[in-house]
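Appendix C reproduces, verbatim, an entry submitted by the partner laboratory led by Prof. M.T., so that reviewers can inspect both the input and the predicted structure.
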Amino acid sequence: MSKQINVALIGNPNTGKTSVFNALTGLNQKVGNYPGITVEKKQGICKLPRGVKAHILDLPGTYSLNTTSLDESVAVELLLNKNDKNHPDVALVITDVENLKRNLLLFTQIKDLRIPTILVINMADRMSKTGISLDINALEAKLDTKIALVSTRKNTGIAHLKELITDYKNLSEKPNIAISVIDPNYFEELRNTFPNQDLYKLWLVITQDVNFMPIEKSTIKDPSSFSTKSESELKRLQQKETILRYKFINSILKETYKKDRNAATGLRANIDKVLTHKVFGYIIFFVILLTIFQAIYEWSKIPQDYIDQFFAFSGNWIKQSLPAGAFTDLIAEGILPGISGIIIFIPQIAFLFFFIALLEETGYMSRVVFLMDRLMRPFGLSGKSIVPLISGTACAIPAVMATRTIENWKERLITILVTPFTTCSARLPVYLIIISLIIPNGTFIGLSYQALTLMFLYLIGFGMSIFSAMILNRILKIKSKSFFVVEMPSYKLPLIKNVSYTVWEKTKSFVFGAGKIILAISIILWFLGSNGISNNFKNAEEIVSNRIAKNGLSNFNKATIKADIRAYKMALKDSVLKKVYAINTNDIKDSLHQKKQALFVTASNQEIASFKLENSFIGYAGKAIEPIVQPLGYDWKIGIAVLTSFAAREVFVGTLATIYSVGNDEEDTIANRMAAEVNHKTNKPLFNLASGISLLLFYAFAMQCMSTLAVVKRETNSWKWPIAQLAFMSVFAYIVALIAYQTLK
């Protein structure tokens, strides 16, 4: 066997499908979207015994082949369409040993498609804890398949599973159920009308919304012999099919599956009572969030400082080592600062995904969904809406796509429209850099002010989404009724391997996804900031030098030099520092003179670079929009950063890093450059409490993400909703930021 085989992983949600996928593929996996639709496509490569290679495709989770969402339709279409390049040679149906009865419904449906099917019973390590015993040989015989009993936690059964995949040609393709017994006359008509079609596949094509298997009228020998059924009649037949399958499953499990109902259930029930309590449940969730944000700040400080210093050193080293010219400036002032604006936030983003993965792996996230249903109902939503809102903390794009699980159109539309208010990881770089500049390092009851500020931003984003949902629920006159059902998986210790894969994939996706945009924008910004056609730009050095000779340095630079000199004088009085600087007492006067000269030269160069930047192409563009952003406390540089960040929110920091680096020869970190930036109209630091809070609130409420708008358009099939979403969020963000700045200044 030399060719690569296709293997499809399919199963109910919360059966450990992702764990099996990770165990088979390791890091040989990638995530994308199915062509033409916004459904995540996860695939990887697995090396099997005897030199066989398998292409593993992780299909969206589904409870049955009777589809209710776009995710499930993707799985059904792939299983039915043999012309698809990813059509499986063998299907692995992943089941949970504690919920085997429900999981086997999907297994019998897939096996009836005559696809070689392996039953993978996962979480085998829990059998002894939950009092479960299985007769594997008898179960294999009755289901006419091969079974792999695996535990991804203990890493057992994976080798056996690989052997079964390798020998997939020996698997039986005989169906479990004779589908025709639910309505013999109707299925006899189908068989006679379409003699060349498999009966069960034909049944799925008729009852599901699939687009690839057209039934031409010319193939019908006698149209009058085929009686069509209404949608309600088809639904009743589907119900009969489900009942028939469960009768078959019950008869098998009665002989092969035993479970002690009293084993290990009391502890889980007691924990659930606390975690989903109408008071303590919310308190516990709030404490968990506080702990997460505190850890994000405390744990990431050291690696972030090293990254910041590395990029500052690298930019200076490049300028000193490479020949002076446009290419060196492009790297040192364009590409490097832009990329550093994202790389520096990898620690915080990785920790955020780490904690989210922990909550999902332990089973706690499902309890949060259940808990939040009580909170969402008064606002016209259900607990299912909390899944997109929580996943929106990673990215609004997959969060909007996650609304497909909401059957009720009104609830789904409202959730799509309010989800972008949830603070996503793209906002995190903006929040972190601004918070570090304007919020002091103190603590309150052991929690840092900065962590509390970050949590506050997350909470107001979530609060605004709930408030907007309430307004939309009253405005949108769409009559609907829905039911909320959520599965509570068993509690389990998180698998470090699964958590690591999640952190790696999500962080990599964030960095490379944002990196492409930032690299392009950084190059464009560098070019616009390094070139100009006016005489002021061409003669900047001469103009500024004459102005300094006539009027001296700016008031801010004068004050800065005085402060630096005072600090230097104090250092000279310290005997230890004098030894470090190798300064003799007799040389102090000369040393002070040299220090003043160095500070004067640095300040002069900064004023020249600033004047040149203001008269460059980007300076003129910034000055054009400055009247719009000035009432918010921003200058033209921040205005440019806000404008470019519409491509992606995280571009904001990279844009400022590039702008501040253009023409600047000083080795310094991005945070220090932003902290030193001056509002030349007030001669005060640009990033102060008023302007900083204004910026934080603007990004908390503004859309600022064209990719999200594109996804909203695709999900709603109309430009009306994303345009309304953009207009409302932008205007609301501007008004809130304006009020905040004007109040605090």
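Residues 32-39, 210-226 have pLDDT under 50 and may be disordered. Additional entries are available on request from the coordinating office.
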